[in-house]
Structure formats: structure tokens, C-alpha cells
Amino acid sequence: MTINAPTAPAQAGTSHDALAKWVDEVAELTTPDRVIWVDGSPEEWRDVTDALVNAGTFTRLDETKQPDSFRAASDPSDVARVEACTYICSREEKDSGPTNNWMDPDEMKGILTQLFRGSMAGRTMYVIPFVMGHLDAEHPMFGVEITDSEYVVASMRIMARIGAPVLAKMEELQADFVPALHSVGAPLQPGEQDVPWPCNDTKYIVHFPEERMIWSYGSGYGGNALLGKKCYALRIASAVAHDEGWMAEHMLILKLTSPQGKAHYIAAAFPSACGKTNLAMLQPTIPGWKAETLGDDIAWMRFGKDGRLYAVNPEYGFFGVAPGTNQRTNPNAMATLKGGHSIYTNVALTDDGDVWWEGLENEPAHATSWKGADWTPDSTEPAAHPNSRYCTPITQCPILADEYDDPQGVPISAILFGGRRKTTIPLVTEARDWAHGTFMGATLSSETTAAAVGKTGIVRRDPMAMLPFIGYNAGDYLGHWIDIGKQSDASLLPRIYYVNWFRRDDDGGFLWPGFGENSRVLKWIVERIEGTADARETPIGHVPTPEALDVDGLDLTTEQIAEALAVNSKEWQAEIPQIQEWFTKFGDQLPTELQVELDTLTTRLGDC
Ligand code: GDP
Ligand code: PGA
Ligand code: MN
Ligand code: MN
């Protein structure tokens, strides 16, 4: 294969020496036709989206229904995160740990260098300076993504703070940054016609935690390609946080104000496609309570001078699961999307230039499915992929909390863990203390979803909903959680809860209505924190007494509520060997505190 040399030098240079050097090196390796520095201007958005429309990647949606918004359909093979191709390449294998894929960093760089050689031929190489979190944070967290995908450029503009102001600050500080290199891995021969969604069957999503560096090859899907999100703000940031004594977590951040006007900030970790975006934007069904959003996927938490944990959302947009989103389940997401400037991927396209997905109102009589096929309500295949997504600016969210703009973040009163479990896990359980809460997080389990490639519905342990995102040894990560709990007074730490919106009755239906009704559970949590709500002590922690949970106006029988809250000792006894087996994975790396918690639980269950 003949490789084109870059025909034009970079459009704009930079006075950031290390960045200039890296951009030159990458251009030499990947041989793009041209290099463009992404500045974040409105003209650039127009140019990039026009280019995507011309390439057939984007369909421009009807301006009155979806202003300045686009629909993309991916290659059918490139629809989710690829955990099997995701690596943590620490120098020592033990630092990657029992839950991550590992390869020697030099060996991996050898493989990737071969793959990236000439990989941008015939394409444009974009340089995207970005910052995760606030530009005026005490220590702004810079990154630069180099990509050959216009789809990535358009999406990164929504999901992160990017462009000229970021580059100017980086230059002023000659700041360190995370180099994040991405290619779809589809070079074009001269004259070769491009496809709407270029990608490669060979995929590598690779992190070098000690070097704070990311290389991603072969996929255009959000979680694999928008490198500020999972790769930087979770995997790399968790390794940085471990070194520096803070936390990078897969958590939404929510502000809840009681009828008395008292505000509490709540963070919650659920695995992908288990309800973070919905809870982050919930519309309370109980009178007088108000919810506001700060973030729907990632929280960075540090101790403040007052000894409390403060959280910021490092992102600038929402990358939400489309199916199931509608006016009833998530009216605030719908309102955010109404603001326009959004990208929909792998949803159906209606004949009048709108989008549709399973669960949305106004089912069309005919549409084009995410696979490009004719779709009608009689079709056996879904119109939208189960992991189809919307990408939309957070600033358009009607209930965005003012504190979102505060680089100090908000003090967290409660941390929730949750997952999808048909059985065993009650609607809500309160941990006795931080170590017990860490045990709840460490043993969190959930049925797998379409957010990652692979079989769905399989129960797996997903510690703190971070299984696919821990950038170092998971045993050390659990130890870090235990250590965090020792850094402050117990009374200042967030209280920890385990929730399950997905428990089923004997007929397979959800026992709990969920969505806005989850405000009832949040109310109990706030009242627990304020010392006004009752709880029953059980072997697994404190659960609400039936009277303590506000079920006013809820269409549920007393039996149904009792079933949702039930602690069934038979089910829990079956859980013990599974937890023991899970803990065995960690060997010596398992914090002793967690084994003690398991022994305590076993004893308590034996006593009841
Ligand atoms: P995220 O990926 O963690 O942000 O999860 P989402 O909030 O996007 O939700 C993923 C899927 O779970 C969507 O199809 C939602 O409709 C569904 N979901 C979210 N919250 C609830 C809930 O409280 N109850 C039930 N039954 N489903 C929910
Ligand atoms: P989610 O984000 O957690 O909102 O699903 C994307 C992902 O985790 O892949
Ligand atoms: Mn996520
Ligand atoms: Mn989400």
C-alpha cells in the first residue's frame, strides 16, 4: 500500500511545545491529508456537520422538530463499548489487576504503532484541545484528542469543554495534558469512496495509566472514541485519583431540595444502562420536593477543607440511552433535546425527518430502522438499537443546578449504589457505616445490558459500577475506598445506600414503578440523614419500615411494597458463596475490612 505524506502542514501552530511535538509525530505516523485544529467556533460546527451530512453519516433532521440536530447510523458491528478489546497497560501486570485486560506496554505500543501507521491516509486529522471539569479549576485537567473522525469532533464539542479557550490556557500554563489518540482505522486510497461509518474489525481501546496516555483504534462508538469520557474521566482519572487521594467515579450528581427548603446533594453509581441519566433528571412525584441535575455519568470527588466530599461533573453534555426515554420517564431529557444541537445515533428515522425509538410516544406507522431497513409496528426487529444514544448539551437541561458552574463542586450527603437485579436486593438498604457501604459497592451486582458488546441479562459483579472503568488493580481500588473513609470524620462522610429499581414479582413485572416515583426513596434517604425516618435493622443493613416510606397516592398494595422491601434470608444465603467466590479473585489485594464485612454478614444471616 502506498502511503500519502501529509500534503499540508498544520493550519495553526501552537506555542505549547510538547503539544506541537506530539501533533507532528502523530501526523508523521498516521499520514493524514491535512491537519485541523478544532477551535469550538459556530462556523466549525456548521462545517463539520455539513461534511457529515455530505458523507452520509448524518441525516439533518426536520428543523422545526429537532433544530440543528442530526441522526447517525453506525456500522452494525460498532454499537457499544468493547470490553474484550479494552486494555490497561500498566508496566507491571499486577497493577492492572484481576479484572482488566493487560499487555506489556512496549508490546502494545508495537502493535498499535503498526496499526496507526498510515491509518489516517486520505482523511483529515483533527486536534481537539479539551478540559474535563472547569477551565478555571485549581488544577484544570487537560487533554488533547487527535482523531480522524468528524463524528468524534462533533460529539466531543457537545460532551466536553473544548477549543480555543482551552488551548490558550494550556499554552499559558505550558500545562501537562493527557494525549488521547484515536483513529477509526480506515485509511482511504486516492479516489476511494468513503463509507458512512468507517471503522475496523480490529479494535483496541488502550490506556497507559503511568504515562496518562490513551490510544484508541478501530471504533467510532462514543464510549470507545470520545476519549474524554470513559477513557480519561474514569480510567485514567481513577489512576490519578488513586495516586493523589481523590475519587473518579461512575456516578450521577443530583441536588434534592425538601419542602422545607433544605438542599442535599446525592451521588449514585449504577452500571451502564441501569438508570443514572433518569435519576439525575428525575421529576419528583411527591409534593414540595425539587430535583436539579449536576451530572448524569461521572463524578470527581475530593475532600474540602471542611472534611466533606465535594463532587464535580467533568463533562459538558449527556450521552444518554434513547430507548425508554419519553415524557413520562424522563421529561427533562426530552426538554433538553428540544433545545436542539443534538446528535442521535442508531435510533430510527421517521418519514417526516424526526427520530423515534422503542418507548417514545407517537409510534410511527413507518420508519427507517437503525439498520436502514423499512420498519413498521409489525416488524420483528427493533426500530432503534437497544444501546442507541442521544448526545446533547448539558446547558440545555431545564433543571441544571446553578452549582454546575462551581469548580469547587457540591458537598455530597449520600452515595447510592444500584443495579439491575430481579431478586434478592431490596428497594433500598442503608449501610451501617462507610466500611459496610464499601462492602455494598464492592459486591454490587447487575444484569448485563446492551451498553457493552456481549450477552445481556447475565448477573455479574460490578464493583461501584466501575468494573469496565477502573484504570488500575481493582483490589487496590477497593482499598482506596476503605482509605478514603479513614480520611475524614465519620459524621462528615456521605451515608451509603444500596437501591434496586428492578426487582420483579412472580409474573416478571417490576415491583416498583421507578422513574419519578424513585423520589420516594430519595425522600426516605434524606430523612434518614436528618434523623427523622424510621428503619428496621436487618442482617444486610437498615431498610425502611413500611410506614417510613412515603407511598401516598401510589397505586401499590401493602403486599407489593413489602415484597419490594423484603430481605429474604434464603436469597441472601445463596448470595454468600457468590460473594466469597468474587472476593477470591482479589487474593491478597482484598482489603481485610471487606472480608470482615462478609464474615459479619454470614454470621448475621445465620442468626436469623
Ligand atoms: P444510564 O445508562 O445508567 O444512564 O441509564 P438510563 O437512565 O439511561 O436508563 C437505562 C434504561 O433503564 C432506560 O431504558 C430506562 O428507561 C430504564 N430505567 C431507568 N430508570 C428506571 C427505573 O427507575 N425503573 C425501570 N424499570 N427502568 C428504569
Ligand atoms: P451510561 O454511559 O452509563 O449512561 O450508559 C455510557 C457507558 O457507560 O457506556
Ligand atoms: Mn456510563
Ligand atoms: Mn446515562
Automatic annotation (TrEMBL):
Residues where GTP binds: 273-278, 389, 420, 515-518
Top-level taxon in the UniProt lineage: Bacteria
Start and end residues of each Phosphoenolpyruvate carboxykinase C-terminal P-loop domain: 246-603
Compartments where found: Cytoplasm
Predominant cellular place of this UniProt entry's protein: cytoplasm
Cofactor dependency: Mn(2+)
SUPFAM superfamilies assigned: PEP carboxykinase N-terminal domain, PEP carboxykinase-like
An MF annotation (GO) of this entry: kinase activity
Classification via PROSITE patterns: PEPCK_GTP (PS00505)
This protein's pathway: Carbohydrate biosynthesis; gluconeogenesis
Catalysed reaction equations from the record: oxaloacetate + GTP = phosphoenolpyruvate + GDP + CO2
Gene3D superfamilies named among the record's database cross-references: 3.90.228.20, Phosphoenolpyruvate Carboxykinase, domain 1 (3.40.449.10), Phosphoenolpyruvate Carboxykinase, domain 2 (2.170.8.10)
Cited Pfam families: PEPCK_GTP, PEPCK_N
Free-text remark on how the cofactor is bound: Binds 1 Mn(2+) ion per subunit.
InterPro entries: PEP_carboxykin_GTP_CS, PEP_carboxykinase_C, PEP_carboxykinase_GTP, PEP_carboxykinase_GTP_C, PEP_carboxykinase_GTP_N, PEP_carboxykinase_N
Sorted UniProt keywords: Cytoplasm, Decarboxylase, Gluconeogenesis, GTP-binding, Kinase, Lyase, Manganese, Metal-binding, Nucleotide-binding, Pyruvate, Transferase
Keyword Disulfide bond on entry: no
Residue positions binding substrate: 81, 221-223, 272, 387-389
Sites where the protein binds Mn(2+): 230, 250, 297
Cited function: Catalyzes the conversion of oxaloacetate (OAA) to phosphoenolpyruvate (PEP), the rate-limiting step in the metabolic pathway that produces glucose from lactate and other precursors derived from the citric acid cycle.
Name used for this protein in its record: Phosphoenolpyruvate carboxykinase [GTP]
Gene name of the record: pckG
